[in-house]
Amino acid sequence: MFAEQLINGITLGSIYGIVALGYTLVFGVLDIINMAHGEIFMFGAFIGMLIATKAHAPLWAAFLGAVLVTAAMGYLLERFALRPLRGRPGGSQLAPLISTIGVSILLENIAHKLFGAGNQLFETSFAEIKFEAGPVTVYLVQVVILAIAILLMAGLSLWLYKTRAGKGLRATAENLETAGLLGVNTTRIITATVVIASSMGGVAGVLVGMAFNYINNQMGLSMGLKGLAIIIFGGMGSVAGAVAGGLILGLSETFVVAYGSSGYRDAIAFIAIIVVLLIKPQGLFGQAPPEAQR
Amino acid sequence: MGGTIRLVGLIALLAFSLMFMGAAKDTPKASAPGKAKDPAVNARIGVISILTGQGSGYGEAITNGFKLARDEINARGAVNIELVIEDSSGKQEQALAAGQKLINSARVVAILGPTLSTEMKVVGPEANASGVPIMGTSTTAAGITQIGKYVFRNSLPETQAIPASVRKAVMKYNIRKVALLYGNDDVFTKSGFDTMKKVAEDLKLNILTIETFQKGQSDYKAQLTKIKGLSPDAVFCSALYEEGAVILSQARKMGIKVPFVGGNGFNSPKVIDIAKEAAEGLVVATPWFADRNDPKVKVFVARYEKAYGKKPDQFAAQAYDALYIMAEALKKAGKADREKLRDALAGIRNFDGVLGKFSFDADRDVVMEPNVLTIKDGKFQVFQ
Questions:
Q1: Which terminus of chain A has a smaller tally of CB atoms within 10 A, N or C?
Q2: Cα A88 to Cα A103: distance, rounded to the nearest angstrom
Q3: Which residue from B218, B225, B250 is facing A1, i.e. has the nearest CB?
Q4: How confident is the model at residue B8 (pLDDT cuts 50, 70, 90)?
Q5: Structural domain boundaries, residue B336
Q6: A123 within some domain
Q7: How far apart are CA A180 and CA A171, in angstroms?
Q8: Residue pLDDT, tens place only, B276-314
Q9: Which domain holds residue A171?
């Protein structure tokens, strides 16, 4: 039973991690919390469901479709909900946050209209592939989810720290105006960031559908709140922190249920987060703000 | 400063004139029956339901049931019903605001709804204090009609439904040890669990573990893996069908093959739609059975399917009957008067609806015989 619960926890944690990656990327660059990320993730799940379950297309098509649609949504989000608010003198710091909350409500209701209320079956033949090691059943999906989480984390780190675009992104994150003066096309960097973060949400959506078999138009909210907690826990803007934080939250939730009481599932997981933040306020992998370093 | 005062005065004036207009609009209605050839009772009835957000699946079924009944009742002519439908989003504060709006500005003669017992706990006292009859069509938690003498319901409470299904399942499958699983953030599923636990204790069953989950959760593997490790004879699961169907599906996939006994919320054809073959072996007690051999039921199912393209579930059926009960009481009351309607409602006995013979007891609560059903070969069948 321990092994099965461990696998359950890792699967859940990997999904949390991928969702949190989307948050952390946008936060790292724009210093805003994209409250619409959870709903974009939910859309990714529904697009994947339409392609894989309703149209019986292969799984790669589901991923591709979900990524394309969520990337487009990310572009629209940036173009119409974030860009008009940027660089306005006297604009509130909170304006982009509120505007993404608006987008999240809009998306949730569009999903309700398009896909209906309630749980929808997400069925793929791939999700049925399993192998048994003694009493333990492992689904291939569970392995794939962990692999995708690690790949995304590694790919993102490489992109951020080893490529020219990543350098531009980090410069933009450091100071938007200075980066612009130094010849970085900041608008393009910001758009690319939101688009990439959103398409990762799309990937996470398809993975959730495959892992749990059911999706509904409310799933963005609960998953989104977990993702937010994780980036605070793992360190705002930290890529490794998002994945590590996700795994820790997923595992702790699962083991609280397994060896404690399921009524305390969220309570204990979040108490753990509070304790870590008391000891290390910037989060697990977070860096102290520049003023404090100097 | 002067401008502000003038503005306030203007708003007050506007509010007053609106009130009088409302009053003026109501008067001809009250005197109309004298002229008409058959004295039709015109009634405006408020509906509070979940139309958006989590749980809007229930609201959809419920309002569909009301609309179908309204069209049929109005076509017959003895009673003419106008529905004023408000959204509660499943939230207490929004349900209360909707209730106040219906009571004070829409001036409805009675309210149907709200959807959840949690909402009824706040809207019920308000309607009761205002002397407006209110009837829950889906509120099955304990203590609903005890709110006051204007509060009714036609939804079979869990305290009657669950013992029936548990006893039958225990006898048939010789159940000795059970695992309990319930949603702990909803009054409905929580009170269902309390009943299950009490019945399990009364029957001296060995309760192996008690697990919980929350609304909208999508991953139940941790709880289910734990339950599987304890190998119970049955799982008693108090859940709404949205969560319940997913739980069943994940449990079966994991290899938990024992019967599940569910509460009232588990009873919906959607369980089969969502969980497919994983739904086999679920036992529920329910006031509503769509395949019951009764011409009334067959007509209702056919009409509902024609109008909305899907089979009516328990929530639609209860809503449908509720409006007919209202119409019956309005006919008896003779006019759309809140006080007279309340007395007429309280006197309803042996009403013959799609749910079967229905009566209100002295506490305005439900008296009826539940059907115990199980899912077999992809459909609900009578459990024997």
A1: C
A2: 20
A3: B225
A4: low
A5: 39-156+296-367
A6: no
A7: 9
A8: 888 999 998 888 888 888 899 999 999 999 999 988 988
A9: 2-117+128-287
